[in-house]
Design a protein that fits this description.
two-stranded antiparallel sheet, 8-stranded parallel barrel, 15 strands, 373 residues, TIM Barrel, alpha/beta
């Protein structure tokens, strides 16, 4: 295996990371009753901060009508800053950079978690009901133009809080069918106003967060964007729309783009025919113009190296494998990859330092994690 996994990298914003491995953003369902970072989450991130180049946190909601999970952490008001500061300090203590993922659920927000049970979106188009952890049955209300502008400002304010808390950057969660993607998608965005253009909302967000960074950041601070290359709805996002989005993100001069997929080697299904994976096709389209993070079913050191080498990505994000073994990176770097834990034992929650709400779901959902029963 080439040693490219452990080469450092400096983003155009000036943020430097020690290697090419990132912890993927994974919902923990484990914030406290005020949606502040919990003690269990501090321990969880601390245990995983000693090896990776950067940790991308679980998504944080930027406004209360965007909350999408039980136990989701908040970044929608200044009261969250002290806990977020402690989180950034905890991750930095292990040598990793910390990036907070900013989120609004839109039509996939959970009705009983948002004010008045009202979900909102680019349009009043109902989502697919089964979203894995929840089923959403209701149609959203279409946001007014003024409300869209307010949400753009909410992302800006969340960025300010990220800066004040000491994070190294933010990642806009434009994937998995959530609000940003809902504006990009021809399925959910059928507006006739200025927000009807597929790229208007994400580009407005990038402009807003960059303005906030220029006003408030006193050290390098990066902006990343996560995207889903395809979606199941018709009409919907295909590889054609994804390439249009990527072109716009490159021109917007952000620090990186991050694919959201469960399998790094899945082939395109819509918008193009190819024998290559979506990861390879996206890397070829980008052609080095912006750093690319690959992800999806990366469990072994060879899996990770293959994403970088064959997939031609700049980084690899690791999710479930880091939950199962918090010291995955250190073991690979020290030549002890054969000692990586591949399967969770039902009595090893404390050993793996996994928060209780996340642990309960791991045990409940068959096939999500490799659990010895």
């Amino acid at each position: 295996m080439k040693n490219t996994l452990f080469n450092d990298f400096t983003f155009k914003s000036g943020v430097t990371v020690r290697n090419r491995i990132m912890m993927a953003p994974m919902t923990t369902f484990s914030a406290d009753v005020q949606d502040y970072v919990s003690d269990e989450e501090y321990a969880y991130y601390k245990e995983r901060s000693n090896g990776v180049g950067a940790i991308i946190t679980a998504c944080a909601y930027v406004t209360k009508n965007g909350k999408g999970f039980e136990g989701q952490m908040a970044i929608d008001h200044d009261g969250a800053i002290p806990g977020l500061t402690k989180l950034a300090d905890t991750i930095h203590a292990g040598g990793a950079r910390c990036i907070v993922q900013l989120y609004h659920g839109g039509r996939l927000a959970v009705p009983h978690l948002v004010p008045n049970g009202e979900t909102v979106s680019a349009g009043s188009i109902s989502p697919l009901e089964d979203r894995g952890f929840y089923k959403i049955h209701q149609s959203p209300r279409e946001l007014t133009s003024e409300e869209v502008e307010a949400i753009v400002r909410d992302f800006g304010e969340a960025t300010r809080r990220s800066i004040e808390a000491g994070f190294d950057g933010i990642e806009l969660h434009g994937a998995s069918g959530y609000l940003i993607q809902q504006f990009v998608s021809p399925h959910s965005n059928r507006r006739l106003d200025e927000w009807g253009a597929a790229l208007a909302f994400p580009l407005a967000l990038i402009a807003e967060v960059k303005k906030v960074i220029a006003e408030h950041a006193t050290k390098p601070f990066l902006v990343g964007y996560r995207f889903s290359p395809e979606e199941p709805e018709t009409p919907g996002i295909t590889m054609v729309e994804t390439f249009d989005l990527l072109e716009a993100l490159i021109k917007a001069d952000i620090d990186y783009v991050h694919i959201a997929t469960t399998d790094a080697w899945a082939k395109p299904r819509r918008g193009m025919v190819s024998d290559k994976s979506r990861t390879e096709e996206i890397a070829a389209f980008i052609d080095g113009r912006v750093p690319l993070i690959g992800v999806g079913s990366v469990h072994t050191a060879n899996d990770a190296a293959l994403v970088l080498e064959k997939g031609q990505t700049d980084f690899v994000a690791i999710g479930r494998a880091l939950v199962v073994d918090p010291h995955w990176v250190e073991k690979v770097q020290s030549g002890q990859a054969e000692q990586i834990v591949q399967k969770l034992q039902v009595e090893h929650q404390q050993q793996a330092v996994i928060p209780t709400p996340l642990w309960k779901l791991i045990l409940e959902i068959d096939g999500w994690f490799n659990v010895a029963r």
